Amino acid sequence: MGRVTILLLAGFAMAGCKEHIGDSCGTSTDCSVSGERQCDLAQPGGYCTVFSCDADTCPEGACVEWRFMPSRTAETWCMKTCSSTGQCDRLEYACVFPNNITMTGEFDPDLPADERVARIIDLDAFRAEAKICVALTPGSAQPEALTETGFDGGL
Q1: Residue that wins the pLDDT comparison between 47 and 145
Q2: Bridge partners of 135?
Q3: Global pTM value
Q4: What is the C-alpha to C-alpha distance for residues 136 and 119, in angstroms, rounded to an integer?
Q5: Averaged confidence pLDDT in the chain
Q6: Quick one: average pLDDT of 20-47?
Q7: How far apart are CA 80 and CA 72, in angstroms?
Q8: How far is CA 128 from the centre of its chain?
Q9: pLDDT of residue 153
Q10: Whole-angstrom distance, CA of residue 31 vs CA of residue 16
């Protein structure tokens, strides 16, 4: 009887655990058993998120608006925030500013404002100026490969 109780308690404890925004997933129940987070299977390895977020409503990370021009095509998703690609904890993901993502899903540090497809809509200054973990098009330039070479110029 004691063993059954322990197994039941362990099962309830695991069911109550919530995955974080940006974690990998195979189904939405991997992200939340109560349904407040969904698994975006269009992303490599799945991506725990909240669809249709509003400014400053994400439980963690930032609310990112995609394809905001024209506004009728816009979608919002909670995305994991980061300061470096290592914080994304996933091989296929890079840490970038949303305004550096092209329509084809590539990284472009010099992307003109009229070609941007993503922006953070949060009003909180910390979130509004954050980078996000996103899967870039395979084979495209990676942001840290362009800016952090590790060379000191021979000095």
Answers
A1: 47
A2: 93
A3: 0.78
A4: 15
A5: 83
A6: 95
A7: 24
A8: 14
A9: 42
A10: 11
